[in-house]
Amino acid sequence: MLLLVGSSTGIAHAQNTYDINIPTGAADPNAPYFWQSEKDGSTTGIIEILVLDTIIWKNADTVAHTVTSGTPGDGPDNMFNSGLFASGKSYTLQFDKIGNFPYFCSVHPWRVGEVIVTEGLSILPDVGGKITDGDISFDLEYKFSRLLANPQINVEQKSITFELIGNSKSSNHELFLRMPSALLDGPYIIWVDGKQLADFEHDKENEINTLRIPLTEQSKILTIVGTFVIPEFGTYVVFVFLAAITCIIATSFKLKPNLVPRI
Questions:
Q1: Does the N-terminal peptide bond of residue 187 adopt cis geometry, omega within 30 degrees of 0?
Q2: Considering the chain, what percentage of its residues have pLDDT values greater than 70?
């Protein structure tokens, strides 16, 4: 369910907030445009944002309007509905899930738009490649107000350490991280700048671990300790060698001629 339906007072925390203005004359079906986005100047009513971003629709027209999820043809889909808001008023909505969300004005159904919500995750590529001599590596997906950099894997400690660098791009400093089980599996213990962190969230689905880790603008070093870490090159080669031997033996049995004499 989408978050925060309300007026312009009391905006929930978001990554970014964008205004969509309803111009004077928007109630006229022959108006040149019905919306104006301050993000990019678009007048289509279509806006692309990241998950947890917020949109404020501001009514600069002389009559009341609605922002109702759905389409004029199919009607409201009950995802969100501003109700009528008058001239000078606004409607604020934070989007907490990805997807495409069409909307229209229930009073003036020719006024249609769409909110496209994407994850906007950054990629930390080729993690683990140095451990396996490049034979296997993983791309980590994350979202953070700064950069996640320089991953260092400690096989003996079953851990991976990151540097947190750069200037903050947001007031939200929670790290959202997706990490394959084959790289570092949980359950986890997390350390930030040498102090153990107890307050974090961990979910696992389809061998992908999802972590939500509350950090600060001053956080510098993040270490995640797990129960399994990607094997070192030598161990990895043994796995590959054993798998190859198994395949050879299986193939040899298939190819071995029938030694039972014919009668």
A1: yes
A2: 81
